[in-house]
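Model: You mentioned two targets. I'll fold them one after the other.
Researcher: Yes, keep them separate.
Model: Target one:
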Amino acid sequence: MAKVLLHICCGPCATYPLQWLKARNYEVMGYFYNPNIHPYNEYMQRLAGVQDLANAYSLKVIYEEKYNIVDYFQAIAYREHLRCRFCYQIRLEETAHIAKRGKFDFFTSTLLVSKYQKHSWIKEVGETVAAKYNIPFLYEDFRLGYKDTVKISKELGLYRQAYCGCLYSELERYAPKELINATIPRV
């Protein structure tokens, strides 16, 4: 049975990929590493949501103990228009590193379930770090199960967030459109 390390951004996004991987006989372990999530209380709610998911599915999860929001902001500073790409890079690089060290056969990410993420960037970054660490990136377009994630996460009572995670996505979700267009550089 092939072992896959599943980067988990949040509990709801993990529901469908986890079921998909298990249905194909992968041995799955989760990895919660998300230095982009802002503010801290949002980070803690998502962490608790992943813990609830892990309990519901008897999933073993590696939890990154550090909250590295400063590292995230330093990585994207003056490159905000590419922030998603740098965010994918930070998270997938660390996932590949952990997967290699843990002797996994593959690594992948729950980011691939969201219809709001830039899949071409995720795939490109995943394949680049896969080559660097000599461990395959398992790309699957999990967006087919996006509606399932909503249904399953509601059934499990998982915390459901209203934005991707970073300060910019929070601003895009809640601020008036005029403010966003004047403030955030676009891709």
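Model: Target two:
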Amino acid sequence: MKKHILLFALTVSVISCGDAQTTKTKAQSNKEQSSSVVNKVVSKSEFKKLMENKEAQLIDVRTSGEFNGGHIGNAKNIDFNGTNFKSNIDKLDKNKPVLVYCQAGGRSGKAAAMMKEMGFKKVFDLEGGYANW
């Protein structure tokens, strides 16, 4: 009799843990879907369309020398290799779209990944960078 009670208690415990894990996984999945985070590389034409959004934050992550040699429109220069890069990026509005580019796409890709980790909701990286502009 004691064995049956012990077996019953153990079975109920295992089933309860499984249900709790399933519920947690479903809740986590729903939360991830509702956050609708966008982080993608876009073509030059799509980048231009995104620039029409008045809320978009245009960021050039090249060095100041590269930036001074030419840049896109009203871009703000935040050097990816600069000592204050992360703190300067953190000052941007995480809920507004960020359009980012560098010279060829390497630094801006790394910057976009970092911004996603920092909680930015929509980050668009110019395919091929300024060289493609």
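Researcher: Noted. Anything on target two?
Model: The radius of gyration is 23 Å.
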